[in-house]
Amino acid sequence: MAGLAESFRNIWKVEELRKRILYTLGLFVIYRIGAYVTLPGVDAQVLSEVNAQSGGAGLFGFLDMFVGGAFLQAGIFALGIMPYITAAIIIQLMGAVVPYFQKLKREGEEGRRKMTQITRYLTVAITSLQSIGYAINLQYGATGTAIVIGPTWFVVTTVIVLTSGTVFVMWLGERISEDGIGNGISLLITIGIIAFLPNAVINEFNLSNNFFIFLLEIGMWTLITGGIVLVSQGIRRIPVQYAKRVVGRKVYGGTTQYLPIRVNAAGVMPIIFAQSIMFIPSTVAAFFPDSPFMQNLGSWFSDISGVGYSVVFFLMTFFFTYFYTAITVNPKEMADTMKRQGGFIPGIRPGKQTSEFIDNILTRVTLPGSIFLGFVAILPAFAMQAGVSQGFAMFFGGTSLLILVQVTLDTLQQIESHLLMRHYDGFMKSGKMRGRRG
């Protein structure tokens, strides 16, 4: 504990790091205030009563967690940063199949700037379309309650406000990344998720009849978090030998480095894809209240603690882990880059054999990662079966816990780099964070 306290004191000794952290916290406050500013023309009291009756479950509840409660509260940041995430995923997927985007990826910094600009334009287009649906749902939703006070021009004003809000949140994320600490977009999502954690813990404590059981739940939660940290940091290192080359009077190369292959190269995206698809049947079923088949189908996909739901969710997460890894990690590109730089894997010929070797390693390493990710995805179902309340069970695994762990690790690595650069000890003097190993 003394070493941890010393690390926190060192943070405040570094003026640049202190300013970055305070700047980031200030933008967090602005973001959280926007979540409580209701859209013009919406009766906030009636809306809260409707949300209390619906319980915030299903797809809307899932989206609400990512924006810190602004979605169900009809805040000006109701769509949050999610349209930007959607646009970024689309651009990333197109970069794997569209030649134009593949060319931009090879152009270095200039290509990244162009792709960022295209992502911003696509974000505005996606936000405009989503805000139209959001406004229509508020005005003509099947709640049976008049949520909108002044329906005149409500859709137009809502589209303008929500689009402006998303663009502003996107700007906040970019400011955090450039002038603050950590990845701004990821941190804004994390702050929205953390906003639900205190209430979930307090409600679980109030509902628990035994204090020992509550402490046991906290202990299990800590162990699960530690396991996710371990797998998130897990890598398979492939040795790469670089040949010696003489440039002038200096000799370069001749050293052995390592190509890191992550156990969980796909990150949290497979669970997000799988969970989004799992919510589609129940959402579609809501539009067919007179169809017994659709209602039964919707009920089956709404029972997130059921065995059938968990099995399908596990298999979809397993599939999307391999799918997303295949899209984002390109063994052929790794092999070509290694060949251009004069590197080779000992015992493997450069070129096609190197690409096949990396692909085989990636396939084998992804198998335990995909199984673990699928298990993490269905952990909330096990927690609910064990008696944990649904609100707190969502933090036992799934999207929320993975995002919290990975974003926290990324932010700590950046803080660690600032401290080590100024000859201070980081958070973990004997730890194995990738930033310190590097």
Any overview of this molecule?
With about 450 residues, this protein is mainly α. It folds into two domains: about 15-195, Preprotein translocase SecY subunit; about 205-395, Orthogonal Bundle (Preprotein translocase SecY subunit). The chain has 19 helices and five strands. It has helices at about 1-15, 15-35, 45-55, 60-65, 80-95, 100-105, 110-140, 155-180, 185-195, 195-205, 210-235, 270-285, 290-300, 305-330, 330-340, 350-385, 390-395, 400-420, 435; strands at about 235-240, 245, 250, 255-260, 345. It has a three-stranded antiparallel beta sheet. A hairpin with a 2-residue loop joins strand 2 and strand 3 (about 250). Helix 6 (about 100-105) crosses helix 7 (about 110-140), helix 7 runs antiparallel to helix 8 and helix 8 crosses helix 9 (about 185-195). The model is unreliable at about 430-438 (pLDDT under 50).
Spans of at least 5 consecutive residues whose pLDDT stays below 50 are 430-438
Instruction: Assign a percent range to the helix content.
Output: 55-70%
| Average pLDDT metric | 81
What's the N-to-C terminus distance? 25 Å
Structural class: mainly alpha
| Relative strand content | 5-15%
Largest sheet: 3 strands, antiparallel
* Count of separate DSSP helical elements: 19
CATH topology of the largest domain: Preprotein translocase SecY subunit
What gyration radius follows from the Cα positions, in whole Å? 24 Å
Give the CATH H-level superfamily of the largest domain.
Answer: SecY subunit domain
User: Rough shape?
Assistant: globular
**Spatial strand sequence of the major β-sheet:** 4-1-5
Number of structural units classed as domains: 2
User: Total number of β-strand segments?
Assistant: 5
What is the ordering of alpha helices and beta strands? HHHHHHHHHHHEEEEHHHHEHHHH
